[in-house]
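User: I'm curious whether this sequence folds into something compact or stays loose and floppy. Could you predict its structure so I can see for myself?
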Amino acid sequence: MTQNKSISLIYKFSNLFYFASIALSIIIVSILAYILFGGSIAGIIKIDFLNISGDFTNFNQTPFFFRFIIFTVFTIILSIINIILRYWKNFISLIQEGKYFEINTIKKLKLIAFFLSFTWLAFTLLGFFISNSMDFSAETSWFSAHGLHEPDFSQDLAFSFNFPSLSFLITALILWVLAHIMTEGIKMKDENELTI
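Assistant: Here's the prediction. I'll summarize afterward.
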């Protein structure tokens, strides 16, 4: 009974985390779309990316191509995160229903492993590409963007890309091996039922 309560708690937490992630993603993509289509956010923006270089005082002064790249990259990253969380939520839902050794449950586990591997590979390639071609930093403040007196607690916003941790890849490999073991368990169970 303790296991059922713990699975139920994980299921509720997974649902909450998934919907919170969706809401946060919508907010972030909305802000990025606002910036993409010429929205005004003041700050000190230094860009050295491919053939684009310069100092800007507002995001609406930066080249459209640069804003489009930022919008696209962050939208793809948020989409991948939400896909992984959705499959995790569905996987936990099947576990809570007691469908431990069913093909549909194992497929969800394999898809989570696939997307985690893809995320690690995408972050690795993105980190390599950006570290070799881009130097971007921005200092921005909501108060200065709206023409108000800026208090002492103005926020600094800095973008930096590092190579991702191997934990993405290791977790994906562990999940993939577990899914393979579970698949073999289902085959053995089916064979035993046929022999009886």
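Summary: Residues 82 and 128 are 24 Å apart (CA to CA). The helical segments are 2-36, 64-96, 103-133, 142-145, 167-195.
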